[in-house]
Amino acid sequence: MNTFPVATLRKPSVVIQPHKGLFQLDLLSLWQYRELLYFLVWRDIKVRYKQTAIGASWAVLQPFITMVIFTIIFSRLANISSDGKPYPLFSFAALLPWTYFSQALLRSGNSLVGSANLITKIYFPRLLIPLAASLAPLVDFLFSFIMLILLMVWYGVVPTWGLLALPALILLSLVTALSVGLWLTTLNVKYRDVGHIIPFLIQIWMYGSPVVYSLNMVPEKWRLLYGLNPIVGVIEGFRWAVLGTARPDFMIMTVSSVAMMLLLLGGLVYFKNMEQTFADII
Amino acid sequence: MDSTAIRVENLSKQYWIAGATRRNDTFCDQLTDTIKFICRRKDRPSKEKTSFLALNDISFSIDQGQIVGIIGHNGAGKSTLLKILSQITAPTSGRAEIFGRVGSLLEVGTGFHPELTGRENIYLNGAIIGMTREEINHKFDAIVDFAEVDKFIDTPVKHYSSGMYVRLAFAVSAHLKPEILMIDEVLSVGDLQFQRKCMAYAEELRKNNSTILFVSHNMFAVKSMCSRVILLSQGKISFDGSPVDAIEMYEKESKVSAMPWALNAIGADPSQWDVYVEDIETYNENGQQLCMFNYGERMRIRLKFSVRRTVVNPNFLISFIRSDEVACCNYNTVMDGFTVPILETDGSIELLTPPLNLVSESYSIYVLVRDAKFEHLYCAQVGKSFHVRHDLLNTHFGVFHEQGEWFMPNEAAGYQSCNFTGGQLP
């Protein structure tokens, strides 16, 4: 226990100095702290439905009730087309990635501020905090995915080979949520306004994404611009993978992915540059 | 073999004081500021004016196994230094190298979640302070034993008593077994018992040749634990060397201040109090200015006071409060039969104590000025502290130690004769 390998190696275990350079990701330390990431995610999941009567059923109920409401309003009253699929299924297939995305955004956006007591007391790569916050809602996602399968059975929709693309799409939605979450949580440390903005942002964002309507309703000439919204590619991909709707437009997927990559890179650089001041201003 | 544990080179930390000239804590303020800045570049506030150096070009190196105390008055940069060394905040310039696993008692209970059970929190907290899961598995039973919570290990910690909570939190931290321990006593929370536990833990680590960095206001603890003391003042190292010399310098820097509670009782501005003690000086019997006294020595305390309004029949009180907040003794002019004349002008008053029988510890001097009937309070301040030295007597012996008389009563002869046979002390 009290051997001192460092004393013989003569290499400092930690070097502390001001961070220089625009881009120091330090992925190695993320890897070293992977167990902590696991525990942080595990904590979020464990705590989420403590002291609730129906527990994890909330994860299924929330998108389900939203789907029912959407069906009544947008399908029955507003008569919005659903690409030839039953509207409940059509909207639920989009609500799945969207609910995950909005949850991940909400939680990662508030994650740093919510972990102030950790940040001011102990060191670990701060990136773990928004990362854990974006990973935790994946469990909710899995629960509601079971609901989706039940709905598909009910409506007699046969899955296509596109289903195999699902893991890649889930990863894509995780990265998309993280890329936006990084910006929000970093801004939130300094400007608490962000915490108030996030709920509105999510609400507006939903109507700017093909959740209640189909991408086909967006005029052709605006589609590429519309694709700049990084979640568009994810949602369209999801519908295609589970429902077998028309294969998503390659251009739109590319635009969405590029937009997402830029957001992610910018978010990482911004986060890493602000990281060293978190403890001082939080 | 080179056995450096911590090496610090030209470390500085600059803080920006927000709100001095402008605020931009909200996005809106930032926007308007940015617009103003673009429109009128001249208006850019000079950054030099709103920043200060919490640490200013600090360099030192600590060998493995050294116990180093870091002392200094509030704002000297002690906590900032510790925060940088534990990587919580980054330095503005300079460099520090750490050789070994770092633990700090700052993080006791950090990340504990009230909804999780004791077992779950052990894993969570352990991971946060840097233990691997395997390591926690390995030490799990020892932690539970140490915390004495085995019956409640599967109960959410929100149902724990505060004592159990702290015990569990401490148990996790204590099993980290760091090679370098940083203790910030100024920031650490918890009751006296808890602090004692921390000290016992530090003592155990010391035996295992760990390096310890110890920030404290308790000069006595510093003196008894550390072999070397770094004195910080205004972000710089003003002394680095033997504890006795460092503490002597520290005491010289210290000022008399008003007691926080007195600001409500007397008045928010101490400079308007009827009487104000400007300085407290401690001397030995021969008039030599000191702050460390031997057990049994007599001590002179001189209070220099200023008077703003005439005070009739004042009663000066001097109390010694031990570093663990135990009030040890009190001297006051009324009970000691000294009549202070009406105070009209600034002056000084001196107390010559009887031989100090207090145990070896650190004591701070509290000064109160009341009226003779203990009804009205004019002044309440805390000033210098002093130390009593004795090789053996410590707090385990109580507050003070005085010599008693011992006998072995002879049953047959009865009580009377005892006095004659055993009453003589060498």
List the helices and strands and how they pair.
The complex is a heterodimer of chains A (282) and B (426).
Chain A: H1 5-9, E1 14-16, H2 27-32, H3 34-48, H4 57-77, H5 87-109, H6 111-114, H7 116-119, H8 128-135, H9 138-155, H10 166-190, H11 193-207, H12 223-227, H13 230-243, H14 250-275, H15 278-281
Chain B: E1 4-16, H1 27-39, E2 51-63, E3 67-71, H2 78-85, E4 93-98, E5 102-104, H3 118-129, H4 133-147, H5 162-174, E6 180-184, H6 192-207, E7 211-215, H7 219-225, E8 228-233, E9 236-241, H8 243-253, E10 257-258, H9 262-265, E11 275-284, E12 292-294, E13 299-307, E14 314-322, E15 327-332, E16 347-352, E17 361-371, E18 377-389, H10 415-422
Parallel strand pairs in B: 3-7, 3-8, 5-6, 6-7, 12-18
Antiparallel strand pairs in B: 1-2, 1-4, 8-9, 10-18, 11-13, 13-16, 14-15, 14-17, 17-18
Helix pairs in contact in B: 3-4, 3-5, 4-5
Name the features.
heterodimer; A: 282 residues; mainly alpha; 15 helices; 68% helix; globular; disordered N terminus; B: 426 residues; alpha/beta; Rossmann fold; Coagulation Factor XIII, Chain A, domain 1; 10 helices; 18 strands; 25% helix
Written overview of the protein:
The complex is a heterodimer of chains A (282) and B (426). Chain A is mainly alpha-helical and 282 residues long. Helices cover 68% and strands 1% of the residues of chain A. Chain A has helices at 5-9, 27-32, 34-48, 57-77, 87-109, 111-114, 116-119, 128-135, 138-155, 166-190, 193-207, 223-227, 230-243, 250-275, 278-281; one strand at 14-16. Chain B is α/β, with parallel strands linked by helices and 426 residues long. Chain B has a six-stranded mixed sheet, with helices on both faces. In chain B, strands 10, 12, 14, 15, 17 and 18 form a six-stranded mixed sheet that branches. Chain B has helices at residues 27-39, 78-85, 118-129, 133-147, 162-174, 192-207, 219-225, 243-253, 262-265, 415-422, and strands spanning 4-16, 51-63, 67-71, 93-98, 102-104, 180-184, 211-215, 228-233, 236-241, 257-258, 275-284, 292-294, 299-307, 314-322, 327-332, 347-352, 361-371, 377-389. In chain B, a hairpin with a 5-residue loop joins β17 (361-371) and β18. Chain B folds into two domains: 4-251, P-loop containing nucleotide triphosphate hydrolases (Rossmann fold), CATH 3.40.50.300; 257-397, abc- transporter (atp binding component) like domain (Coagulation Factor XIII, Chain A, domain 1), CATH 2.70.50. Residues 19-23, 42-48 and 420-426 of chain B have low confidence and may be disordered. The longest helix of chain B is centred in the middle third of the chain and has 16 residues, at 192-207. The radius of gyration of chain B is 27 Å and the shape is globular. In chain B, α3 crosses α4 (133-147) and α4 crosses α5. Chains A and B meet through α1, β1, α3 and α7 of A and α1, α2, β4 and α3 of B. β1 of chain A pairs antiparallel with β4 (93-98) of chain B, so a sheet runs across the interface.
